[in-house]
Amino acid sequence: MIWNFGDLIIISISLVYTSRFNQITDKIKLYIESNKTHSNVLSIYSVEIEKIRDKFWRDLRRDYGQMYQMCTSSSDLFGLLILITYSFNMMFILVQLFVSLRPREQIIEILYFVSSFSFVVGRTVMSSIYGGWLDEAGKAALPILNAVPSEMYTEEVAMFIAQIQNNSPTLSGYNFFNITKGLVLSIAASIITYELVLMQFNQQELDQYLSVKGNVTICY
Questions:
Q1: How far is residue 57's CA from residue 158's CA, in Å, rounded to a whole number?
Q2: Overall pTM > 0.85
């Protein structure tokens, strides 16, 4: 039963943290733009403004660190669930692909296979996409910080850049893998490889499936 809700949990967690990291990125953009607009006025109070800027970046860096720690804690808490969810999804996809090589004549059987297979593939892909958005959201501020104007660049900005580079938030499957958009391609490659192995070692059973006629149904 837990497996059935695993993908929803992954998507929900990813949405929450993605939203929070996007808020941090938007705050950085807004701050830089506002400082560019009022750069001439702010230059008069350079000493005070520098202190305010340092405090802004320090507070933002602390917020990012807290969000990263929360994301890491969630990944540790749900790591086993993520691993089980992806394992069951892959197992179901592999079995369904192998059994699909058998000809089907009944429309109900065809509809069941197409709907169930599409459902599992769809939720696996969606989990990876939403998890990938979290990974991208955690790094989204990096190019903006690297493009900060020289008059606004401080030691706090450099530390913020290093923090993002070294502490990128992702959900992990019990430290066996991280959920990114590239995971979809890795899963697809693994499925193709395992499917070829299954076909090779089960050729006799596959021949039996291909020879099934009439209303005989072989189920797993």
A1: 10
A2: no
